[in-house]
Amino acid sequence: MAGTALVAIAFFLGLGIDDPTIKDPSVLQSISRHMLIGLGALIFASLVHAIVLTYFMGTGRWVEETSRAYKLPTDFHDESQKIKYRLMPGITACILMLVLTGACGASADPATIAWGYVQESLGMTPSTLHLTIAILTVAVNVWVSIFEFRSIERNGEIVEEVMNEVNRIRTERGLPV
């Protein structure tokens, strides 16, 4: 949620920029602040999504190896894998949306050559395109963050179930728990 919060902060800072063509120092300062926080949000939110994916890769491997070692049913590993593979498209979409938002933001700089091309080919200003993509990015990040949280909760329950089974087996065999 921290990554999504940073994305939202960058979004609201961007809403405060009325006309990026004005050479007023306060407007330039607002643009700079928006760009820096936006870039930080892009990096941090991508990092959070990558950590979530890494968590599922690690726990999935642990569940698989523990299930094999203790001859547990494959149900634990199968469900853990399903959760991970359901999350992957959302994580990928978030990271791509974050990068696309940044790219559209760069094209929204009136000094870039992209300004005219975007306006001619899409029929909208690069600022409008950037705003539209940013709205979608915030919405997708909120939705995926909620889905990640719920998935981590369920995966934690699976890990706990595996540990309970391992403890039961070890107790039955007279091994330390």
Question: If you had to describe this structure to a student in words, what would you say it looks like?
Answer:
There is one protein chain. The mean pLDDT is 92. Helices cover 84% and strands 0% of the residues. The chain has helices at 2-15, 25-69, 75-107, 114-122, 126-172. It has 177 residues and is an all-alpha fold. The chain is elongated. α1 packs antiparallel against α2, α2 runs antiparallel to α3 and α3 (75-107) runs antiparallel to α5 (126-172).
Report how far the terminal alpha carbons are from each other.
36 Å
Q: Report helical residue fraction.
A: over 70%
Number of helices: 5
The main β sheet shows up as: none
Chain-averaged pLDDT: 92
Fill in the keyword field for this structure.
about 0% strand, 5 helices, mainly alpha, about 180 residues, elongated
Short description:
The chain has helices spanning 2-15, 25-69, 75-107, 114-122, 126-172. The chain is mainly α.
Can you lay out the helices and strands and say which pair or pack?
Layout: H1 2-15, H2 25-69, H3 75-107, H4 114-122, H5 126-172
Helix pairs in contact: 1-2, 1-5, 2-3, 2-5, 3-5
